[in-house]
Design goal:
The protein is an alpha+beta fold. The protein contains 16 helices and 7 strands. It starts with a helix and ends with a helix.
């Protein structure tokens, strides 16, 4: 099937134009300053589902706190999550640390440079594996993400649905056919840069494209019709009452989320599900869950937070402790200074400011 997309394609000219454009026009990004497998790895994990401009300050801060694999391996999970705070998709940070610990223990602190060994590390999928191998080690391995699929769907006129996992194999095979053996680093980064700067999802800047002459979609005037991507399922909405509870000392009640699942091990204010409760019944529910009687006061703030599959609608209320003893294994009262040390998800960071 791949041959039908790359047959008679001017591979050498395409490579040369793309690589020369990248080397001339590439953005000045901190993880590009040197060939360093650890920095490449961290940057690629951070860039998953996050914009470059958002990632840059986080990357500097992360590297300042964990300049080596050993530093990250020896850090506490809470310290890592606090540094990651605000980037979202926190399983990325946990998996990164788990994999780095494995590299330190099993590979003498050297990031492995084979597809087989890299692919065994937690959190490293086909794209991240290809990015590390090509960028840091100059090994011609495909690094296919949404950007690259968009670029090649237009250049090669691939009309398969990119929302289907099986379609990725088609693009990986196409990249293997076209990737530069001499400079796979610039080739793969050139594709990524082209997707970010020129071959954008809507209204691509085709007149500025360095490989426009090879693009079948541009030639046929269908660049805005590709790639083909079916829409996913609608997100479900979950409403909660969030309680900002203070005790007689002015401390605030927070709890740590479960060790598994959404936002694992991050901290949050207590959340009462409004699908099952109304505001009047929350104090009774809270006493049963936490062993504390509370009085709910005025609403402080509304926060809406969108995840990949759900939407949280958070109604935050001030509350005070009336009586009782806290009886919840993962909850505690904290001073403001203690709160500043804990990692919170973005939705609850927005409520921290009200305190």
């Amino acid at each position: 099937m791949t041959k039908t997309y790359t047959d008679k394609f001017p591979i050498d000219a395409f490579q040369q134009n793309l690589i020369e454009w990248f080397q001339r026009e590439q953005r000045d990004l901190p993880w590009r300053k040197e060939k360093n497998a650890y920095k490449t790895w961290v940057s690629e994990i951070m860039l998953q589902q996050t914009k470059v401009d958002t990632v840059i300050p986080y990357f500097y801060d992360f590297m300042d706190k964990f300049p080596t694999l050993e530093a990250l391996a020896n850090a506490s999970e809470q310290e890592v999550l606090k540094t990651w705070e605000g980037l979202g998709y926190y399983s990325r940070a946990r998996n990164l640390q788990t994999a780095v610990r494995e590299v330190v223990e099993d590979y003498n602190g050297q990031v492995p440079n084979t597809a087989e060994e890299l692919g065994k590390l937690k959190g490293i999928g086909p794209y991240t594996k290809g990015a590390i191998l090509s960028i840091a080690f100059d090994i011609p391995e495909p690094a296919v993400d949404g950007n690259v699929m968009r670029v090649f769907s237009r250049i090669l006129k691939i009309e398969e649905d990119i929302a289907k996992p099986s379609t990725r194999k088609i693009f990986e095979a196409a990249v293997r056919e076209l990737i530069s053996e001499e400079d796979p680093s610039s080739f793969n980064q050139g594709l990524m840069e082209l997707g970010a700067l020129i071959c954008k999802p809507k209204n691509p800047d085709c007149l500025l494209c360095p490989v426009q002459q090879y693009c079948k979609a541009f030639d046929e005037g269908i660049e805005n019709l590709l790639p083909i991507k079916t829409k996913g399922k609608n997100k479900r909405t979950e409403p909660y009452a969030v309680l900002l509870i203070r005790d007689e000392k002015g401390r605030v009640l927070v709890q740590q989320r479960p060790e598994k699942g959404l936002l694992a091990n991050l901290w949050e204010f207590p959340m009462a599900p409004l699908t099952d409760l109304d505001l009047q019944s929350i104090p009774n529910w809270f006493y049963g869950e936490y062993g504390i009687e509370v009085e709910i006061h005025e609403k402080e703030k509304d926060v809406r937070h969108v995840f990949s599959h759900i939407i949280w609608e958070l109604n935050a209320y001030n509350a005070t402790v009336l009586s009782g003893d806290l009886d919840h294994a993962r909850a505690r009262f904290c001073t403001k200074e203690e709160l500043d040390m804990l990692p919170f998800p973005v939705s609850h960071q927005k409520l921290l400011s009200t305190l």
